[in-house]
Amino acid sequence: MIDWSYAAAGTFTGFIIGLTGVGGGALMTPILLLFFGISPTTAVATDLWFAAITKIAGARIHHTNGNVDWQVVKRLWAGSLPMASLIVLLISMGTHIVKVDWLTKGIGIVVLVTAIGLLVAPRLIAFAKRKQIGQPERFKTMQAVLTIFAGAILGVCVALTSVGAGVLGSVMLLYLYPLRITPHRLVATEIVHAIPLAIIAGLGYLFAGMVDGEMLISLLAGSIPAVIAGSKLASRITGQWIRFALAIVLAAAGLKVLL
């Protein structure tokens, strides 16, 4: 049976994912925690599968439009997938990584950091452009290594909190590829990168019985049509004002989770 309150939350988040490439964890996890009172572990576990399935629906459209930067995706995967797999292995072995109090605070901190990153993104891009233009060979040499390292950080964040693949990843790519990643390519690249990462990170929680299947179905009932609509609209608008509004919402959600 579809719970339409969950479906409405899925619709809102799915549309933002399709339009901006972010929000799978940074929006949905705080929504589940704050508005529905879901426990942190269940929220993280269910949101990982919500994000993975929702982004599969949006990725096809972005790929068809030729916006996915596959070289960047592969570099991110080289760092994120092994680290997420390690966390999953530890969870499967019964390691008590997920403490409720720690996890709640961790989600709040990551959401706040990503909100700040979105707000300072224009200055970050300008700084990165100066570095790339001023020291092009050195910057290019370090790009691949730093991208893999960024992926590793995202793998840990996503596996533990379900937050980071979209918002935090976008901020990292804006710095690492200021001349190469256009807004549309950024959205598409982040969506594709997040799919196997969310699936791998979600496996440990699935095997541990932490995923709420009924809630997941209700969320997806709203998100799948919405992410398709958002993905089609993404190629027609810049989305800068949405990113600013999203940063404000994330900052408020992060503070509320922490306080």
From TrEMBL:
Keywords per UniProt: Cell membrane, Membrane, Transmembrane, Transmembrane helix
Extent of the signal sequence: none
UniProt membrane topology term: Multi-pass membrane protein
Cell membrane in keyword set: yes
InterPro entries: TM_pro_TauE-like, TSUP/Inactive_protease-like
Main location group: membrane
A Pfam family that the UniProt record links to this protein: TauE
TM stretches of this protein: 12-36, 76-94, 106-125, 146-179, 191-208, 215-234, 240-258
Localization per Swiss-Prot or TrEMBL: Cell membrane; Membrane
Family membership: Belongs to the 4-toluene sulfonate uptake permease (TSUP) (TC 2.A.102) family.
Protein name: Probable membrane transporter protein
Organism from which the protein derives: Nitrosomonas eutropha
Higher taxonomy: Bacteria, Pseudomonadati, Pseudomonadota, Betaproteobacteria, Nitrosomonadales
